[in-house]
Amino acid sequence: MKKILVVDDEESIRLLYKEELEEEGFQVEVAKDGKEALAQIPRFKPDLITLDIKMPGMDGIEVLKQIRLFERQVPIVMCSAYGEYKQDLTTWASDAYVVKCADLTELKNTIRRLLGLL
Amino acid sequence: MTELFESLGLMRSLTDFFLSSMDLEKFYERTLTTGRIIFKAKGGVLRIEDRAKGNLEVHCCIGDYHQHPLDQRIAKRVFFTQTPFCLNRKGKRTPFQSILCVPIQGKGKSFGTLTFYDKEIEPFQFEEKDLWLLLVVAQQLSFAIENVTARREISTLIQEQEKRVKQLSTLWELNKALLTTVHFERILHLTLTAITIGGGLGFNRAMLFMVNEKDRILKGAMAVGPDSAEEAGRIWASLSQKRESPSEWIAQISSPSENHSLLNMLVKEIEIPLEENSCILSRTVLEGKAFNVEVPQSEEGWIQTRCKRGCSLGSEIGCYISEHLSHNPRVYSFATAPLWGKGKVIGVVLVDNLYNQNPITEEDLQYLTMFCNQAGLAIENAMLYRHLEEVHQKLKEAQTFLVHQEKMAALGELSTSIAHEIRNPLVSIGGFARRLDRSISPEAPEKRYTQTIMKEVRRLERTLSQFLSYTHEEPLVFKELDLREIVEESLSMVIQGDNGGIQLVKEFSSSLPLVKGHPEQLKQAFFNLIHNARESIGERGVLSIRIYPLSKNGVSHVRVEIEDTGAGIKPEHLHHIFNPFYSTKENRFGLGLPIVHKIVTTHQGQIEVDNRPGKGVTFIITLPAEEEKEDEKDSRGR
C-alpha cells in the first residue's frame, strides 16, 4: 500500500484529503505545517507528498527546498489556492502543481500518474 | 488814360468770369478774346506744357498767328527762361510784324506761354504798357490754373480717403465675422467667402492652401468660387439684391460641409512640395510675400500657366480653367498672398478674376494682403484651439486609463488574500459535499441538497478563477492566429449540438489577415461574449457573429461583431460594464466583461458596444492585423 503525506495548515482540508485518498486505497498521514512534515518524513517514509504553498511560518516553497536536501526521489505535488506560482515552480523542484478544487479528480489523477498506477 | 481804364475793366470782368464758372478751358478762350481786344492784336496763342511728352504745345488760339518754326522757338525760350519777350520788326517787303510773349508762371515754375501777334492800329507795334498789362493777364491765368489744379488734387485726395475708409470699415466687418468662431473649417470658409463676396474683397474665386511643416508640402485646404460663368452670374444677381453688411451675409453663409463644388474638391487634392520653387504658391511661402501674376494668352489661343513642369498649379488649376471656361479669356490674372501666423507663413491664399476678367491691381493686392494678415492670425488661433482640444482629449483618455489601472492594482493585491481565504473553505465544502453525495442513494430527497451545494461551489470556484486570471498578469506568448478558428472554438464551448430556439448567423469573411495574439485569452474573451449573448437571448432569438477585415487609419485590422436579440443593457449600467468593481443584481455580466476588456486592450485592440435597450446589443471587437504579403492572403482564403 502506497503511503502519502498530506501537508496543509487547514484542518478541514487535511481531513478531506485523508478520507478521500484513503478511500482510493492509500495509507495517509497528515502534517499541519512544514516543521511537522520534516519531522515525519524520516519515520513515515511516504511514497508521495502533497504540499500546500501558503502556510504560516515556513511556506510550501521553503518546505519543498528543505525536503529536497535529504529526500531527492519522493514525488511532491504542490497544491495552491491560486495559479500564480505555476510559472516558476513546475519547472524545478516539485513534480506537479495542482490548483486546489473541491473536485479532487485532478489531484487523484496526478497522484496516480506520479506513482505509476495509471 | 481812358484806354488803360478800359483795359483794366476788361481784365476785371475776365476774373469775374473765371470765379463764376471755375471752368479752365472756357477761361483760356475768354482770356484770348479779351486779350485780343485789350492789345488790339490780330491773333493770340496759349501754349501749355504737356508734362507727359515734355513739350510745349498750342492749347488754343484766336485770329491769325505766326505758324513759323521761329515762333515756336521764341515760345520755348520764354517758357524755359521765364522771361517776357517783345519783338517789333518792319520788314522791307513784308508788312509790319510784332510779337508779345510772356510766361505763365506760379510758385517758380512755368505752366506755359501766352502770346499775342501784330498790333492792328498805329504804331503797329507793342509798347511797354502792353507788356505790363499782358504780365498781369498771365498772372491771373496762373492763379486760375493753380486754383483749379489744387481743387482737383483735393478732390482726388478726398476720393482716395473715402475709398480707404470704406476698405477699412469692410476689413473691420470681415474681421468681426472671423472672431465669431474658433472652428477651423469654419474660419477657412469665412476667410474665402470674405475674399470672394462683392461686399468684401470681391475676387471671383479664392483657394486656400495650408503649409504642412512635417512633410514640407503645401496642401489644398478649401476653395470658394463658382464652377462656371453661368453659376457666377446667378450668384452675383442674387447677391446684388442683398442690402445687409458683409458680416451679416457671412453669418448666413452655409457651413463648409455643404461645399461640394468641383473647384473645392479639386483644390483639396493638390499637394505641392515646398521646395518646388518654380511654383508661385511655394514661392509665396518661401519668400513670404504676395505675387500678382498675369498669364498672357498663348499662340494656340488658350492660356497656359507659367509653370510647365507639371506642378499642381500648372496641371490642376491651369487645366481646369481652360476646360471649364465658356470662352477663353484674353489673359488670366491671379494673385497670391501669404497667411502669416506667429512669425511664419502658415498658408497661402490664391485669388483670381476668372469670370469677369477684371485686372488685379496693386491696390487690390495690398487690400488682400491686409486682410490675409488678419485671417492668418484667426486661422492660427483656430489651429491652436484645435490642437488644445486634441491634447485635452488625450489627457482625458490618459486619466481614465490611469484611474482604471489604479483600480486594477488594488484588485490585484486584494485577490491574493481573497483567493486563499475563499478557495480553501470552498474546497472543504465542495469536497465533503461530494463525499456526502456519494453516500446518499439517488432516490433520497437529500440528494438534491448535496447536488445543489456541489453546483454552487463549482460556480464560486469558476468565478474565483476568472477573477484571478483577470488580476494576475501572466507572461504572454503571442502567436499568429486566424480569428475565425478562435471564434469557432469559443462558439463550440457555448453552443453544443442543438441550438434550440436560437438561430445562429455566421458571416465570416473568406479572406482575412492574421492577428497576433494569445489563443487562450482570445478564446476566453469570445467565449465570455458569446456566452453573455446566449444568456441574454433566452429561449428564442438570433445570435449573429460577423468577422471581416477592416482598414483603420490606413492600418489593417480584423473586426469581430457579436450581436444578440436579447434585452440589451440598461442605459444606467452601460458606463460601468467594464468596471470590475461595479456590480448590481441586474448586472448579469459579473467579471466577464472586464476580462474581455482587459484581454482586448492587452492585444492593442478596441471594444465598442452598440446597445439597443430592449432590442439587443452588439459587441464590436477590433484587433490590429499582422502586416502580410499578398501571396499569404491568397493561400488562406476559404
Task: Characterise this structure.
The complex is a heterodimer of chains A (118) and B (638). Helices cover 42% and strands 20% of the residues of chain A. Chain A is α/β, with parallel strands linked by helices. Chain A has one domain (3-114): Rossmann fold (3-Layer(aba) Sandwich). In chain A, strand 3 (48-52), helix 3 (60-70) and strand 4 (76-80) form a beta-alpha-beta unit. In chain A, helix 2 packs parallel to helix 3 (60-70). In chain B, strands 8-7-6-11-10-9 form a 6-stranded antiparallel β-sheet, with helices on both faces. Chain B contains 17 helices and 18 strands. Chain B folds into 4 domains: 2-152, 2-Layer Sandwich (Beta-Lactamase), CATH 3.30.450; 173-381, 2-Layer Sandwich (Beta-Lactamase); 390-471, Orthogonal Bundle (Helix Hairpins); 479-636, Heat Shock Protein 90 (2-Layer Sandwich). Chain B has 638 residues and is α+β, with helices and mostly antiparallel strands. In chain B, 50% of the residues lie in helices and 22% in strands. The interface between A and B is medium-sized, with 19 and 27 residues.
